[in-house]
Amino acid sequence: MPTIIASVEDIQTHTGQALGHSDWAELPFSQIQAFADATGDQQWIHVDEERIAAESPFGAPIAHGYLTLSLVAGHFFEVVRLEGFPMIINYGCNKVRFPNPLKAGNRYRLSLAMTSSRQVGDSKWWELSMAAAIEIEGEKKPACAAEVVYRVLTA
To answer: What is the number of structural domains in the chain?
Structure first.
């Protein structure tokens, strides 16, 4: 069940709070290959299954870091629903790390906490900073830890 944020008061209430996590999903090799094809990043540790079996310390194809980061946007609205705002934009990231490889076949989920919020100047925009983690089932370290920033336009 997603956390619903529908007003400035809700933004302020949820600042400093965990927002929840998405359902578990499995990362198929086909998604890694599709990302490699879309970006042109065909580095062998991602897509060359034969070489991976022979040489990789990871033992399986691993997701590109930016694929792993993109999973935040892909699962964001499973965790939080921003309702009643005329516009919501992904403003960017302040810090991104990839402490653990996300391997083909791993199950992962997104975990979010709102770390800060602020009104942007005198405008109707609010900036929401969130600690995002792509957690790997059964692993202590996440595949991705990032501070993501969204902006919402209030009515």
So the answer is: 1
